[in-house]
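ok so i was messing around last nite and threw this chain in just to see what happens. nothing serious, just curious
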Amino acid sequence: MKLVLIGFGVVGQGLAEILRDKADDLRQAYGFAPRIIAVATQRRGTLYHPDGLQIDDLLASIGKGHLDHYPAADGLKRNWDVQRLIRESSADVMVESTHSNFETAQPALDYCRAAFDSGKHVVLANKGPVALAYSELVTHAERLGKKLYFESTVMAGTPSIRLAMEALAGCRILEAQGILNGTTNYILTQMENGMPYKEALAQAQSLGYAEADPTADVDGWDAAGKALIVANAIIGKPLTLAQMTVSGISSLTSDDIEAARRAGERWKLIARVTPDGGSVAPTRLSITDPLANISGATNAITYKTDLIGSVTLVGPGAGRLPTGFGLLADLLSIHRSA
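result:
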């Protein structure tokens, strides 16, 4: 399997490290021997070699700030336009892990279209295309006989999508609700331990959980984007951000946290989707609720089904290797179906 990686930040590098470090295991256990033949970044160059790129050299060059540091080699192409790289490279699969755009899903949506049209399967860590154009992408892929996978878009490598679409096949999923943003869950956990909101946010930023501008996390928009994916792909409810009720945790105070504690409850930022719609809001949960006991930056989701009741999945929702593993799981699914 030949791969073109669009985006080579934390997630793309995590996948590359996994493919390097687990190469022998993947070959022996699954007969799987993928090669990265092309890499594109937004500002740090692109590379393409039809015979494959050396992962150690890729990581070393990006570590120096630009793919121009990659060693020269016969047949190596540098700085192709991203669309050209997708359309003209001999890759079998495009892996897209650039920044998620929840307004237009661009430019990733056009990258997906170009990949399908040029005969490639698509694996996404980028949430935008699935959140905003899921039905279009599924139709496009099916028309051309290609695969679309997106495990890493919700809860990183924790198999929330695969659980719903494969392990729970045959059940009707009546509702999904979860803690889909680790930053806010970390902040709320620290507030329960007595830390004021602003101090907890600053600590989350210092640990790399929250961005310098934490708006997408603390105002609920990141969780809302993931809820859209669950709505469209799992519940079968076509939904847009404009149709969702979204609020965050920035207005919660220490008094709110203490009042919930006295009542035997905990505040969590809960994303909820049903066939009637979706919402993201800070919610008081009884401590008997499985989601109430998820602490730190961990994520969790509960699927309510018609046949076996509620099933809760808990695991990491972000990180270089967990998200890279989600991409690997999707690549293995394509490999098995070949």
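not much to say yet. The two ends are 10 Å apart (CA to CA).
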